Amino acid sequence: MKNLKIILFIFVLSFTKNVLAQDKPALNWKDVSKWNFNRGGALSPDGQWMAWASGPTEGDLKVKLRKTFDTLSYTYPIGVTANPVIFSKNSKYAAFKVSVKDAEAKAARKIMKPTFDKLMIVSLADNKQTTFEKVKSFSFSEENPSWIAIQFAALETASKDKDAAKGTDVLLYDLSTKKSFNIGNVSEYAFNKSGSILAYLVDANGQNGNGIFLREMKTGLTTALDNDKAIYKSINWNEEGNAFALLKSNKNEKYKEDVFSVIGINKINGDLTNKVIYTSLNDTTFPAGKGVNTNATPYWSDDQTTLFFGINTLEKKEDKKTDSVAKTKKPEAKTDSTKTAAKPEPKKEDIEKPDMIIWNWQDRRLQSAQQTQEMRDKSFSYTSAYRIADKKFTQLADSNMRNVVVAPKQLYAIGYDNSNYELAGNLDGQSYTDIYLIDLKTGSKKRLFEKMYATNGGRLSIAPNGKIASYYVDGAFYSINLENGQTANLTGNIKASFVDELDDHNVLKPATQNLGWSADSKYALIMDNYDLWRISADGKNAISLSDNWKSTKASVAGRMRIYPYEKGTDLSKDQYFTVFNSKTKNMGLGILPAGKSKINVLFTDANAYGQLLKAENAKVFAYTKSNYAQSPVHFATANADLSAAKQVTTNTPDQAKYAWTPGVKLIDYVSANGDSLQAALYLPANYVAGKSYPTITYIYERLTDGLNNYSMPGFPGAGFNKAMYLSNGYAVLEPDIKYKLNDPGMSAVACVVPAVKAAIATGVVDEKNVAIHGHSWGGYQTSFLITQTDIFKAAAAGAPLTNMISMYSLIYWNSGGTNQAIFEASQGRLTPGYWDNWDAFARNSPVYHIKKVQTPLLLLHNDKDGAVDYTQGIEYYNGLRRLNKPVVMITYRGENHGIAKLPNRKDYAVRMMEYFDYMLKGKPAPEWWSKGVNRLDMEKHLETRAFDGGEEN
Q1: Where are the domains of the chain?
Q2: Which parts of the sequence are annotated with region: Disordered (predicted)?
Q3: Hey, what's the torsion of the CAs at 450, 451, 453, 455, to 10 degrees?
Q4: pTM value?
Q5: Which residues touch 109 (CB under 8 Å, ≥6 apart)?
Q6: What CATH architecture applies to the domain 658-945?
Q7: Cα 227 from Cα 523, distance rounded (Å)
Q8: What's the CA gap between 787 and 669, in Å, rounded?
Q9: Is the preceding omega at residue 354 within 30 degrees of 0, hence cis?
Q10: Is residue 340 pLDDT above 60, yes or no?
């Protein structure tokens, strides 16, 4: 009897738990609009405060300031925009913008009325708040904790003309004394690193008093460094804060746009401050048709001997041709009244010209690419230099060698010239480049490498001393001494592969990660597929910092960059790394202690970790932790080994009210091609063991590395939100896909179908109610899979490629290039062209197997899709329609590859779930699916579906 009571108690307890769990409602789309979650996260320089914003998906937000190791916290409404929180360097103050409320912002947009932000400054010691209205920008005085500069927005009555003065008031506010000083007509301002000097530019009406000014913050002494009827812009202090560069523009009647000069300010000493002005019009060596680029920020070399800046096309105004006859009146000729008067010559502007484009097979870039990139080409910045001592201008980049990287210390620059290979690279995606070394003292150029394979990176990683670099060729990493040209094999003596074993694109020996150089330039830090190696610059000594992690399938996933102003990895300081296990998907953090040669794993578990922060002036650390069921929250600790971390933030406070996924299974399975793969199977809310559930199979490429990532409820640009479906009783399956060249679609079949069968074998998945969904590349695979299998009851494909033969030569309109390179060297994985590979192209094209489709399809394709041509969706839709297959295509007018506008995102998210609910759960079919909507009735249909924050499910 006693045992029976225990059994009954367990049964009742279990039943009660189930009832309580079932009492929680599923998320609906209105809940998503109100879903409250955190944005961002900042740590004060002393580590004693954290700040973040929170609030609903749609609506007004709040900023929270909280003591890192205490419960004291302050909360402030900030309107509809999550602006960042900035701490003063002494951690006494926090400042942030406050925008207008959501309702006010929406009303203002309707009548195109401008809105303005406030600035709130909070004294952290006593929570005293100071606010300023109509603020454009603000800045604490860097390392000087005394001041904050506040620039106010222009008046609503200010002229909007492009040549109108841009200056507004700037208030210098002393945080301790509360005294303030106003500076008028400021267009731009910037403190130096120490905060002892403010540089600012004046742009006043009529350009009266325009110039560059310096204010000594301690004394208030102001110096005018340059005055002119000109526009000044782009203040750029050097890191030390003892010099800055900027641009100055003047009107010139010969040119369509302003002509810019470069100004360098250094040796700062009041009126004795040194000023260098470089004006291209005064330099006979400056290239014709070019001018200083207004969009490229100038800067000093470290030794302040050289100014670097960009140049670009400078168009002259058309010459006005004068009529010599009008200038010199000739005697009138005698006319014969019997002859017809000669017709006047038509004016040039009245002649009708053809509107045309000429496409030539020799064009290195397609005409469409040239059109799409026309503005970028016109404004393209060619890196240039001006040496002060010998007043020498050097154009470093040119029309062939467009990409020039100035190396640290500015001794050398590296130039990349792909002009000989650009056409071929745009055709087959296999890119090459010539690499040049430019001596910045002499301007001389020397070719280091000819026809370097660039599809796999093709870039040098330059050490902080600017004298040595690493590069990758044919499966091995090398170093090169830029001073003497000597090379060394860095990885040749290491018994490990430096070819990325998971990269299955059509790339020759794809490289593993190169994490750059140590701060002292003595070591290269390079990954094999699992371990991180510290390799001496001459390649003679190599140490595995992760000590053979391959045996456990663990790897160094990346380095956490926690030190400001770092140049390279400073091995004299503690360095932190993300640790990841590709077998278990466990993640964690590791530390390489200062001066040591082994990474110590601090922790790994079934969570995702990110955003490791270190307080700038203290040993306080913060990081985020999350998993499939726990949204990201911050933990903080004062221990370098991250032990005894305390949770600082909470997130998604409403989640506990709703049914939620109880877990995820990692499934091991073997593909039809014999590859061992994995799939993530997320359990539906209120999951009961032994019961099977309708399941959405979501596909792209390899997805299981995100096993422990949290899915935030929202309105995604492709319609599918995992959290919503799990809450509403669906299981979600995410399998990995491994590709074979020339069989992308068949590879998806070989991997996805066995994954579905393995998931069904767990008992979780209802084999009669499995659907599939993917967008873009996932949309292609979805539309192909339903031609090869009947395992899916329903499918939804977003922006899919459907005809690999026609798609191959269509335009990728977002860039203007052709898809050929994408097919042959990137995601398409089909090479060469279909004329030599017809069977593979046809075998992997959904449209060529369209008669075999038995699965109803919801198709999304927008009419302005710049990635996958709209005709791909049209062709598949019309083919299915002609065969009387159940298909509905939704097009959002004006939208690109994904859905950007919130009303459209809401609409498609709801429709997709309505469709899956009907197909997999037996709910009533939505009318737009079962009957369609007549064009004349569309407006009424949309009105009846309009919702504020989403419809109920």
Answers
A1: 230-317+362-395, 460-606, 658-945
A2: 320-349
A3: 130
A4: 0.92
A5: none
A6: 3-Layer(aba) Sandwich (3.40)
A7: 49
A8: 23
A9: no
A10: no
